[in-house]
């Protein structure tokens, strides 16, 4: 897919979600969340930094939050280009999309699940990302600020980086949608237009999008870090109690499915790598998929503190 096509697809997914008429509190709050993110991107961010000339880079690690933000970012990128092209003196059909790949940075802090690594590579192709991946020096985790220092040395034109962090993430409570990095970090602007999203918003939009999502979520993970500090979420163990699925409608009516009249209950998860399959066969328990967990306060219950 070309970047322009990926951006147009994301625009159609987003529009389609915004047009859903369902008596669902989750869907209406997610529509509100999308509108606010779009406002930040189109009216506050793209007016200060051009998304088309390398000023902005996107922090991407294959996780659900940054994937949601990537879909919305590409959607706004399409709209930004479309508005510019419409205002131009030339006919729209003679305008070509001015960017081939989206500048993206993946700070691979610790040993990553091969399933996630593959997902990042596959989605890099799908969304036409130009992916900078940090190199780990040793088995020990790298320092994130140092990794970004290295990145900025290589791409000094980067004025701002988009981050899919939410208020419910650790240290996320007091963050602002647009702010400078702290003094012990390399100097650039942090663009954080997803802060107000909660877990239900994330799953509702992502499952509706019908875009491939990282297969680890299908195995009960709700927050993915390195192989040595991430497990399926213990609150999703199958023998605990029956957990209801709140996103049946989104899954059955997902983008592209409704047109074909399919309404099937399949979620588009990426394949689990052979190495991870072996790793997971050692687990004693079965788990509900990650999208059964909607309580933000226990989202990281599967993360082991080092
Ligand atoms: N953390 C800080 O304490 N100060 C910063 O200035 C800062 N800048 C960041 C810039 C970028 C582009 C990214 C991706 C992260 C930054 N962080 C900073 C760290 C994040 O706030 C957060 O702690 C980190 O992304 C944790 O990721 P996790 O959710 O994968 O654990």
From TrEMBL:
Kindly give the Pfam families that the UniProt entry links to this protein.
PAPS_reduct
What sequence ranges are listed for the domain Phosphoadenosine phosphosulphate reductase?
56-231
Pathway, according to UniProt? Cofactor biosynthesis; FAD biosynthesis; FAD from FMN: step 1/1
Annotated coiled-coil segments of the chain: none
Q: Which EC number(s) does the record attach to this protein?
A: 2.7.7.2
Q: Please give the catalytic activity noted in the UniProt record.
A: FMN + ATP + H(+) = FAD + diphosphate
The regions listed as transmembrane in this protein's record are: none
The main enzyme category here is transferase
**Designated name of the protein:** FAD synthase
Organism, scientific name: Saccharomyces eubayanus (Yeast)
Q: What is the lineage of its organism?
A: Eukaryota, Fungi, Dikarya, Ascomycota, Saccharomycotina
What gene name does this entry carry?
U6500D01980
């Amino acid at each position: 897919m070309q970047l322009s096509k990926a951006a147009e697809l994301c625009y159609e997914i987003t529009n389609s979600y915004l047009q859903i008429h369902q008596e669902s509190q989750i869907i209406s709050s997610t529509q509100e969340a999308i509108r606010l993110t779009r406002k930040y991107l189109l009216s506050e961010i793209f007016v200060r930094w051009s998304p088309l000339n390398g000023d902005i880079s996107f922090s991407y690690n294959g996780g659900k939050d940054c994937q949601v933000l990537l879909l919305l970012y590409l959607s706004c990128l399409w709209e930004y280009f479309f508005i510019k092209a419409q205002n131009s003196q030339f006919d729209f059909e003679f305008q070509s999309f001015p960017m081939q790949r989206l500048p993206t940075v993946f700070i691979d802090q610790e040993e990553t699940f091969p399933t996630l690594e593959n997902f990042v590579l596959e989605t890099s192709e799908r969304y036409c990302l130009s992916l900078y991946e940090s190199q780990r020096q040793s088995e020990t985790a790298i320092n994130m600020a140092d990794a970004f220092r290295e990145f900025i040395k290589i791409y000094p034109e980067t004025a701002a980086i988009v981050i899919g962090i939410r208020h419910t993430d650790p240290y996320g409570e007091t963050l602002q949608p647009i702010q400078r990095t702290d003094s012990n970090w390399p100097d650039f602007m942090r663009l954080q237009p997803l802060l107000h999203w909660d877990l239900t918003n994330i799953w509702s939009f992502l499952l509706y999008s019908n875009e491939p999502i990282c297969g680890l979520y299908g195995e009960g993970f709700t927050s993915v870090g390195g192989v040595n500090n991430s497990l399926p979420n213990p609150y999703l163990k199958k023998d605990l109690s029956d957990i209801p699925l709140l996103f049946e409608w989104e899954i059955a009516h997902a983008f592209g499915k409704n047109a074909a009249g399919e309404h099937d209950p399949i979620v588009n998860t990426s394949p689990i790598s052979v190495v991870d399959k072996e790793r997971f066969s050692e687990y004693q328990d079965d788990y509900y998929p990650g999208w059964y967990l909607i309580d933000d306060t226990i989202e990281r219950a599967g993360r082991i503190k080092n």
